[in-house]
Write a structure and sequence with these properties.
The complex is a heterodimer of chains A (514) and B (329). Chain A is α/β, with parallel strands linked by helices. Chain A contains 18 helices and 22 strands. In chain A, α4 packs across α5 and α13 packs across α14. Chain B has a two-stranded antiparallel ribbon. Classes of the chains: A alpha/beta (514), B mainly alpha (329). At the A-B interface, α10 and α11 of A face α9 and α10 of B. Chain B: Pfam families: BPD_transp_2.
Chain lengths: 514, 329
């Protein structure tokens, strides 16, 4: 290693640039990662955060500028090279083998052996020591897949530290975690900071930045636009990020003036062990928010209403017509559109074009004699994509290549094209950057202004409070309460959400495992 | 990224202009390989580029190509069909049997063969869609069942085919009928995949079955259709083969499923589903046929031919993997 110097940053990206073909994705950016310091990378999807991370972890090499470790220039020409300098990345998609034990995962690739045989005792002890460092109390013999996402993430952190990592890159580590789990994760981050580990932290949740970060590098369109302390006011951070003011983060407007009509009527819906006797109505022009903890049955409720999952009892009625259970086609024909929880695994065919993805729900209804109306389909998809301002090269671009926000808009576009009047949205802005998020809110306003009805499940409390006209709070599979107007506060929602939860706490922690 | 290989084979004029010749080559590596192969054989032996030999290649390619067209539906929809060789044999045998033993007229015996293939494929499809068996297992079972039934039906002996089926092995206006069948079957398959609702649904189901289901695509019905179509194509291939010999053989087309899968994969389809084109499959089948023909012309033993074919599959798919890796940044 070259001339280590005590007060030099652990890692510096110095004036780095990177182009893919003609597109310059990173332009002259400098970022320092210091010992015992949490450096936040902030920016909209596509701003260049992931490219920077990939440079730090050796996946990409910069075209211009240099990378310094301990003040000396290095070449990180692969993940191994980065690891040899003590740089480890905790990716959003965890690199664990779910069927193998915690200990095997921690020591993957360097399992201790004696005379060619696996030394199980040494494996357990080493793994135990690695887990103890971050205070993670799990059975080392348990298959990793049986742990919840949060603990899997901690296993991965333990694994990185046991590889002598001095610097951790945490790529949206909180995206899939509950409030309690985030607290636990941040506790670990605090400990590591005290130990002198340098960290890079990425999150779309601005409130987390002040809690956990030290300094923020704000990126926009591949350039570094600001370097500010983490205590900076959220509105100012947003201004740096999007290059303009976003006056209202949750611009809910009720503009429907038509006749008062119940569009969606759910009565006594039950599915054994998942949702229990749930009834609610949504009227034209209304947004019903559904809040609750992870595992409260919100997604399951939405999927049952959408016809995606079966249910044991109850009725779902749209505009007075009863829908058959577990029949997505009938629900769509009745005007129901479902934006599922995970757009990548449930919402999109990632390898197919934007055009195809927008058209799936209307493939059959616009066909003649079983033949697809290709020119018409294309024209309509282009039209909707323009209206929703989906940012893409052209309509034939592969869905995989778009940013999270634009991918989510594709799923919305599908239901706009289908003329859906009842939209069931499951975490509609998860992993979506601030700019696209506001566009999605505006879209919700437009749908309801036209007389549509929206049911929105969200774990983002400010979002539920800001965008809903009424809030249904779920807990343990049933309705814990309904809040409206002045009553709808963060405290009241949380008080209802945690009701009965003590008894079910064990179930929940199991239910959240991937 | 290059133009999507998954979807519409004809991009807009604008995107075609922009992507240009480089992308064409990158997306048609198998075609480039086929042309190079033909050039090499043209230089190596004077017998290659002659009318009779080319027709011979077309006839040789037709059985595998028709099987592989059916396999393209299955692989695009994210499945695999190991039973097509056995289904081809049983369908041809059933067609010959209803003619010789039951005395059905020739034209009807041809339809009976196709119906047998459709029924066998639909049974596999139902087991996969509704019985939730992995397609590998369901069609492995069908491979054995169909071959067994072929032996039961024929008592292990060849049965003479009807004139209608034998016609498939003949010539029409000087062109071998198998080549005409190959062309029509290919056009129909391409039409189904590109233009019909069920065809586009196959890409969606293969690309992401859950997203397809939540978009209202009847995934199970699509899967049954896919395997039934593969069965029909297998039956057609089986009767092409029987027609050339004027008899249905109990051991006909054994092992052909692997050649069909190879042709589809060489043609650029992904075994993960959602990607594949009929034109690619045709090129894949032609590559296999040209290699066999060329090696015969060069007097290479059939033992070595198997080695070469295996290497070609590995190299073709290996190049494809590398290409995909490079086009994705």
């Amino acid at each position: 290693m070259s001339t280590p110097s005590a007060d030099a940053p652990l890692l510096t990206l110095e004036n780095v640039s990177k182009s893919f073909g003609p597109v310059r994705v990173i332009d002259d950016v400098t970022v320092h990662v210091r010992r015992g310091h949490v450096q936040v990378l902030l920016g909209e999807n596509g701003a260049g955060k992931s490219t920077l991370i990939k440079m730090m972890s050796g996946i990409y090499q910069p075209d211009g500028g240099r990378i310094l470790v301990d003040g000396g220039p290095v070449v990180l020409d692969g993940v191994r090279a980065a690891e040899s300098h003590g740089i480890a990345t905790i990716h959003q998609e965890l690199n664990l083998v779910p069927t193998m034990s915690v200990a095997e995962n921690v020591l993957m690739g360097r399992l201790p052996s004696r005379a060619g045989l696996l030394d199980k005792r040494a494996m357990r002890t080493t793994a135990r020591r690695a887990l103890d460092r971050i205070g993670l109390d799990v059975d080392v013999d348990q298959p990793v897949g049986e742990l919840g996402v949060a603990r899997q993430q901690l296993v991965e952190i333990a694994k990185a530290l046991s590889l002598d990592a001095r610097m951790l890159i945490l790529d949206e580590p909180t995206a899939a975690l509950t409030h309690g789990e985030i607290d636990a994760l941040f506790g670990v981050v605090e400990d590591l900071r005290a130990d002198g580990v340098g960290m890079v932290f990425i999150s779309h949740h601005l409130e987390e930045i002040a809690r956990i970060g030290d300094d923020v590098s704000v990126l926009r369109d591949g350039s570094l636009v600001a370097e500010v302390p983490a205590s900076t006011d959220e509105d100012e951070l947003v201004r740096h990020m999007v290059g303009r003011d976003i006056a209202d983060h949750h611009p809910r407007r009720r503009e429907y003036t038509g006749p008062d009509e119940v569009l969606l009527d759910v009565q006594h819906l039950s599915r054994h062990g998942v949702v229990d006797d749930i009834s609610f109505q949504v009227r034209a022009g209304e947004v019903l928010g559904i809040a609750g903890l992870v595992g409260a049955g919100r997604t399951e409720l939405l999927r049952a209403v959408a016809g995606a999952d079966p249910y044991d009892a109850g009725t779902v009625t749209v505009r007075g017509g009863a829908l058959p259970a577990k029949d997505v086609g009938s629900a769509i024909a009745a005007g129901v559109g479902h934006v599922p929880e995970d757009r990548k695994s449930q919402g999109l065919v990632l390898g197919a074009s934007v055009n195809e993805n927008i058209g799936y729900a209307t493939l059959r209804s616009t066909a003649r004699l079983g033949l697809v109306d290709r020119p018409g389909q294309r024209r309509r998809a282009q039209d909707v994509a323009d209206r929703l301002r989906i940012r893409m090269r052209d309509i034939d671009q592969t869905a995989r290549d778009l940013s999270g926000g634009n991918q989510q808009k594709i799923v919305f576009a599908r239901w706009v094209l289908a003329g859906s009047q009842v939209l069931l949205l499951d975490e509609p802005t998860r992993g979506v950057d601030v700019g696209a998020r506001v566009e999605i809110y505006e879209f919700i306003n437009a749908i309801t202004a036209d007389g549509g009805a929206v049911v929105m499940v969200s774990s983002d409390l400010p979002e539920v409070l800001g965008m809903s006209d009424r809030i249904l709070v779920m807990s343990g599979g049933h309705v814990a309460g309904e809040l409206e107007g002045e009553d709808a506060t963060e405290d009241r929602v949380m008080a209802l959400a945690v009701r009965d939860v003590d008894r079910d706490a064990e179930d929940h922690s199991e239910g959240t495992s991937a | 990224m290059s133009t999507p290989t998954t979807s519409t084979p004809s991009p807009t004029p604008a995107s075609r202009l922009r992507t240009g010749a480089g992308t064409f080559l990158a997306n048609n590596g198998a075609l480039v390989g086929l042309v190079a192969l033909c050039l090499a054989l043209f230089i190596a032996t004077p017998n290659f580029l002659t009318g009779p030999n080319l027709l011979n290649i077309g006839i040789q390619a037709s059985t595998i190509a028709v099987l592989a067209f059916g396999m393209t539906f299955v692989i695009v929809a994210g499945g695999i069909d190991l039973s097509v060789g056995s289904v081809a044999a049983l369908s041809a045998m059933a067609s010959a049997w209803v003619y010789s033993a039951a005395g059905l007229p020739g034209g009807l015996s041809l339809l009976a063969g196709l119906a047998t293939g459709a029924a066998l494929g639909a049974i596999s499809g139902i087991a996969i869609a509704f019985g939730r068996l992995p397609s590998f297992i369901a069609t492995l079972a069908m491979l054995s069942v169909a071959r067994g039934l072929t032996l039961v039906l024929s008592d292990g002996r060849p049965i003479a085919t009807s004139p209608a089926v034998s016609f498939l092995g003949g010539t029409l206006f000087g062109i071998p009928v198998p080549i005409l069948v190959l062309a029509v079957a290919g056009l129909v398959a391409a039409f189904i995949l590109n233009r019909t609702v069920v065809g586009r649904s196959m890409y969606a189901v293969g690309g992401n079955a859950e997203a397809a289901r939540l978009s209202g695509i009847p995934v199970k019905r699509v899967l049954v259709t896919v395997f039934a179509l593969a069965g029909v194509y297998a039956a057609l291939a089986g009767m092409l083969l029987a027609g050339r010999l004027n008899s249905a053989q109990p051991q006909a087309a054994a092992g052909y499923e692997l050649d069909a899968i190879a042709a589809v994969v060489i043609g650029g389809a992904s075994l993960a589903g959602g990607v594949g084109r009929v034109s690619g499959t045709l090129v894949g089948a032609l590559i296999l046929a040209v290699i066999r023909n060329g090696l015969n012309l060069l007097n290479v033993s059939s033992f070595w031919q198997q080695v070469v074919i295996g290497l070609v599959i590995a190299v073709a798919v290996g190049i494809d993997v590398l290409r995909r890796k490079n086009t994705r940044h």
